[in-house]
Amino acid sequence: MKKEELHELYKKLKDDAEHKVRLGEEKPRVLVGTATCGVAAGALKIRDDFQREIESKGLDVDVVEVGCMGHCYAEPLAVIAKPGYPPVCYGYLDDGLVHRLVEDFLGGDDPSYEYALAALERNDVFPTFEDFPRGIYEQKLILENCGFIDARNIESYIARDGYSALVKALSEKPGWVLDEVKNANLRGRGGAGFPAGIKWEACIKAGGSEKYVICNADEGDPGAFMDRSVLESDPHLVIEGMILCAYAIGAEKGYLYIRAEYPRAVSHVEAAIGQAREKGLLGSSILGSDFSFDLEVFQGSGAFVCGEATALINSMEGKMGMPESRPPRLASQGYRGKPTVLNNVKTFAYVPMIISRGADWFKGIGTEESPGTAVFSLVGKVNNTGLVEVPMGTTLRQLIYDVGDGLPNNREFKAVQIGGPSGGCLPEESLDVPIDFDSLHDAGAIMGSGGLVVMDQDDCMVSVSRYFLEFTQHESCGKCTFCRIGTKHLLDILTDITRGEGDSDTLQHLEELAEDVRDGSLCNLGKTAPNPVLTTLRYFRDEYKAHIEEGRCPALVCRDLILYYIEPPKCSKLCNVCVGSCPTEAIFTREDGLKEIDQEKCVKCDNCLKACPPEYNAIVKLSPPVLPPEKEKKTK
Amino acid sequence: MQLLEGEKEKILACVDEVLGSSSKKQEDLIPILQKVQAKLGYLPGLAMEKIAQGVAVPAADVYALATFYNQFRLNPPGKHQVKVCLGTACYMVGGDITLESFERRMEIKEGETSPDRLYSLERVACVGCCTMAPVVVVDEEVEGKVTPTRVDGIMLALQEENRKNENEKMSGQEAGEAE
């Protein structure tokens, strides 16, 4: 097929899409962020509120659902785009604010800037997100469209030059696509950072006519939701990346392996596949060329280990998701025994832009060894939680303090956990480590899939590593003895430490066993499972020692090592709030009118401490759990 | 868990429908289990046996899959399903305390269904709204910043709803008898 015909065909698609999108933009529009995070915060109700208010005012305004803009801290969010005004983003929405925005802005001419977070386009009136520190460090590639386009409408993707990379690739040889991806040094975003181009090349060299492209969207890491957000907010970007990969390696069939726990991602991707087929962008003879490729969604059933490539393939073949030893690598013997390329969601998402803008452009972003950006879900004790994308090489300090705007309530930073259960906890000293695959590895953590949890003085490192071990122990598939039994013993030792049990050898045992589990496991689940333990032992050994030697939890978290106590001088006799707040009726009024906690009944739920009015602030946690001798009662 | 009246027939019919007429391979097992669970709410032993016959694999293989993957449940879901998120962010602000509070009030353990099948309690890895931690999903509603007091509130609301339903049913029956 001639280049001209191809371009002609795409031009028609694009003109059509642009026309439709422009028609929609002539009217005022309300874009409500309804990715899972938004829905959880009540975005669907906000959407309905907007619709109801608009209807009752008889206004001609479209309410459109878009994906995630990454500003999760301010959910539910909406953008109002009214001709004549810059598009403005509003956060922390409730029905009152919706009412006001519809009345004053959509119905009137007051954009109510006092409630706005930022504008989305440069203007003379109100700052944009780029004007905040976060905007200076952030560089959105993968997330560029997220939250701005209607994920369930292929036209809004095409109108933003979507699928133009595919057109460009189809007018070149498949080898050209491979060369671009190789030159760009695109490293796999699943965590390990293996160069995608080398994987693809191995798959081509494996020969044979039957090949598969699989997208790993089995994001099982607790606290990470980047892949889900991309699939929910911009599914066509990933689909286009997969088509490009298929063209490069000569595959005719591909699968997106998506967790069944992500129903919204599944439905958005399935809808997107259907629309791409209708437009001739998927299926047989794509855009009239002799290249055919089709996609299907496979719903993963929730097993963390299935993020491992060979386990994922086993699970697709209807077996238990247990890893196999490699080689043979998937590139030569993968799904159904055929050569297979398996990449993460984000890896595929970079491919269209590398093809459109060139390998050199991509290499200009980030660091030499790790070009491109890194996407993180920033959670925990940080002000601006949400989805962030920064160039590789940004330091952790910039990410937490500038992009994330620091810790709330002037809390003191203690550690940052990167890479989920396979990653590690890094202390204050490591904050100047640049974020890239190799530097993080040297510091003891891993890039991982991109979960980043900030912890402060109230978080106990022993309890955190116990939490991650509990997770990996539960998710261990049971194939390797060290992983199956070793993680169980690690968990038991950690549980003992949170109870203050252990002796002078305990920490050494813990360390040795952690190293053995690392060395004795086949796949990365077992190999990295001890990371949380090893890094916390390396950086926070004193905390472990306080638990064992003094029976004290410095962060006042481990419940066997603390007790709740009402300080008599501070307690107001006239207030009954704590009594009412206690779920086990452990708090009673003494004869002298003061409140006291029955330690036998107390379940240490923290409720009374939160309930006690700040002017009294009478309830404290004590560790080690020893009641102080009652002070002399105040005489009149 | 005891099968209710008429449940056996329902299970058999459901499995037949999912298996369909075309022959099935091992590769189809997980999607089959997903479909059956979507219809029945869980995977009863009887369904797993029937599926094993239909796909011509040992029943133990089906059971292995159903217990290996977190998505599958072997207990029927309660009328009210409570899922407590224990992702990293939720755990750090006391998600485990919330879970314990529900266990105390429902008098069942995590992963179980109450004998009257009114409540079931599960832990989930991450709901994905870490900013509202600790998070609980009650039926389909997400509740953020849940404290033990809020747990009591949620339980009271559910009990009230059950009582109302019960009353309606009773008065419906009475009305029926009166006719």
Features:
heterodimer; A: 636 residues; alpha/beta; Glutaredoxin; Rossmann fold; Ubiquitin-like (UB roll); 5 domains; five-stranded mixed beta sheet; 25 helices; globular; B: 179 residues; alpha+beta; Arc Repressor Mutant, subunit A; four-stranded mixed beta sheet; 7 helices; 4 strands; 53% helix
Would you give an account of this structure?
The complex is a heterodimer of chains A (636) and B (179). Chain A is an alpha/beta fold and 636 residues long. Chain A contains 25 helices and 18 strands. Chain A is 40% helix and 14% strand. In chain A, α12 links the parallel β7 and β8. In chain A, α11 packs across α14. Helix content of chain B is 53%, strand content 10%. Chain B contains seven helices and four strands, in the order ααααβααβββα. In chain B, α2 packs antiparallel against α3. The longest helix of chain B is centred in the C-terminal third of the chain and has 31 residues. The model of chain B has no long low-confidence stretch (mean pLDDT 88). The interface between A and B is large, with 56 and 45 residues.
